[in-house]
Here is the input.
Amino acid sequence: MDWNELLEIAEHERSQQKPIRLHCCTSTGCRAANSIAVLNGLRDAVDEAKLGDRVEVVGVGCMGFCSRGPLVQIDPNDDLYEEVKPDEAASIVSTLTGGTTSAIKGDTQHPFFSRQMKVVRQHSGKLDPERIEEYIAVGGYQALHKVLYEMTPAQVVEEISRSGLRGRGGGGYPTGLKWATVAKMPGEQKYVICNGDEGDPGAFMDRSVMESDPHLVLEGMAIAGYAIGANHGYIYVRAEYPLAIERLQKAIQQAKKYGLLGSQIFDSPFDFKIDIRIGAGAFVCGEETALIQSIEGGRGNPRPRPPYPAQSGLWGCPTLINNVETYANIAAIINQGADWYASIGTEKSKGTKIFALTGKIRNNGLIEVPMGITLREIVEEMGGGVPDGDVKAVQTGGPSGGCIPASMLDTPVDYESLMAVGSMMGSGGMVVMDQTTNMVEVAQFYMEFCRGETCGKCIPCRTGTVQLYSMLTKILNGKATKADLDAMEALCYMVKDTSLCGLGMSAPNPVLSTLKYFPEEYRERLQEAIAPTPPVEPTEQHGTATAPELLAQ
Amino acid sequence: MSVKTLTIDGKDVAIEEGATILQAAKEAGVAIPTLCHLEGVSDVGACRLCLVEIAGTSKLLPACVTEVAEGMQVQTNTPKLQEYRRMTVELLFSEGNHFCSVCVANGNCELQDVAIQVGMDHTRFPYRFPNRGVDMSHPSFGIDHNRCILCTRCVRVCDEIEGAHVWDVAQRGAGCYIVSGLNQPWGTVDACTSCGKCVDACPTGAIFRKGETTGEKERDRAKLEFLVTAREKHQWIR
Here is the structure.
């Protein structure tokens, strides 16, 4: 494979594509809503109407408006149909020849679509993720060719540094700096790892990227491999994402067949192969050191850092580990330049971020927005607000994040601002809550999640989360006292400060942020508030549980 | 090899590069509580008791795995650390079933020692009274999971020193337990060499030699009867 062959494939593919393409989403969300039957219905209808010479039906990746699936879009006129039923397929095809359809037509001018800025999701929902030719037709693998023939590894690192890209897994560590560190580490063998172990409740951005545009991730990883001097990459995908795994496998095979992965890529001296590793159902394996242990075949336990994976990672070798979305940004930065990328977003947070907008909101789904957009713009304009009543809070960052109250909706979405209000960017989950949401229950939900997902290695996380969960339950049951509340807060800080890895360090965040912004919801459930006369304080300065209390639990 | 100088609780210490803060503290005569640390096997930084404060970083760092650096200023016993350590030990006591009075390790127990060291005389957290098992299938030893604090010292000593890797950790979170072989009774694990290193490594009474438990201290009342019968009837029967 050389440059001309790549262009030939692209040209041939474009010439083969029919002028009218019916895009039907075949990603997990729409599949669950029966989109495969819709896809087949569309194909049958096109055959029946004998439109096969100018119309093709394409099973594509995620279009983003997941709550209204199955989605069908007509390219090029951009008509979008929502909640399409299989028996509506024929009438949708008939609109191409002047017919009418009862299918619900979506408003593509709605801010949910118009306020988006698609960098990572540029081709998502427009191409068949199971055919590499479609990716090549829209300029795929050109960035990889560019770095191999026009740039030195150091220039690639410099380009990524200048772009201002930061880790999209949630921590926000400067990607260029991470690449530079691994590139400068001595050692013959280095590795590239892609973290696809997305596990935050309500978050599905990475799944969508892997399912909708798998080659984008592979190309980003290959570029990273060239930049840091690695010839082997691993994608670690959670087992709960079977479709993503299947499509990545197909993508790797197709890329290998074309010589875009494997030995001597584009006839250059650069070799790069990618293997998939499948998780076994542990949330904590999203933590980088646990993920590395899991790839090595060990128990997925985090270990203390330093040494960081950049120094000693997979099998003790310098290892670059980034999130799916981070790699998915790379090709665009190389193609369009660091300056273009750095022009998007805020001073310290560059580029775009994908969020999974869910909860009590009209428009659920995936959105890609420029950094710096406010929560209010996302929730009220793009999300269309809460169906009944007002927004109470927005939860970002999953079990590691916090709840941001409605009064702070004007907070811009960037790493620092979200951190300053006691939450975090996280991987991109954004759960909207309305006035009916009980914040103590929210805190309890996330604590239950952490209690179940802690690996059990360090004491504060293993035991602290269990105690925090039972304290929250006690409060919800109206059996707690002010002393219990104080003890819970103290334990939150202890777990946060002493836990070994990010899971434990951030597990108390949902409790602390709801305690900070919604203290009355905790206080009104205390015994003192429920009982007309406050109970006689026993030996409460240490919060000792008395025998009757123990029996009552 | 170069030498690093640092201060620990205000005391000047000089120690070779690559040493941990825990080693330096020992050299300076500063006692830092530990539970998962065991001389001779690798450190895992799991018990979080040896966390120390280092000037210039807001994070608390485990002394057992943090290497010394030139000019480092370490505080090992601030009020915050004391409080956190006490809470950690309280969490341990509330987590398992620790009853010193009937325990084989009573008086020779590191958990007990640490509790005294950090001044823990009661736990503010409700006891969880977990229902954990006891495995007495091994001819020489027993393991009582009720007393296990999951420090993994047995796992490491068996893997790294004996090379048998009989032990590991199964499940996660509150469900964690030390597992022998392929989750089979200890006595049926062929890999076990009965070397007893895990018994010596265990900081509590979780892994013990048979015959040492209170439950095994049975009196042989029938012996008297046997002697009387033997003397009076000249019948040596039991």
